[in-house]
Amino acid sequence: MPQNNIEGSRQEKLVSFDGRSLSLEQVEAVVRYNSKAELASHARNLVKDSAETILYTAASLTLENQALAIPDNLPSIPTSAGQEDQNANATTATRHLTEVISNLSRIRAIEFLAAAQVLDPQAKAALGTTTVHTMISELVPFRAEDYPLAAVIETVTELVRSGDLVKYVNLALSE
To answer: Which of 8, 37, 83, 98 could form a disulfide with 15 if both were Cys (CB 3.0 to 4.6 A apart)?
Structure first.
């Protein structure tokens, strides 16, 4: 049985979900440390069409973040009658950073949705994993058929952004 992998330093982890379990360490790596998350190849085969489609959305958001990460002082124009040849473009940089943070929350939400879709609720899982799966399943019940996911993604994104996901896992683990 494949293992969930977490590689690299605390800041540069790759979290690979096997589709059978989700550990608190994986949730924490993604939510707290912005680790990259992916589904293992066999887990992707388990995901239904709608869940597979959202992984393409996550990939698209990742590419958008790459474009937004280009330094904002590169596109610059001379100002002050030619005395200033470089502008920091701080307003643009702030807007881009805000978009990147928003995209990261969506990417995390999409990965949690996809993992919840393939996790077998009957499988024995750790308490943190069960808590996350229960929370997402209550918000978004499993559906085998394809359906529009924009509202679903936003619902789980808000759960990620609010920090409630981590709070509920910590609460469950402290009981």
So the answer is: 37
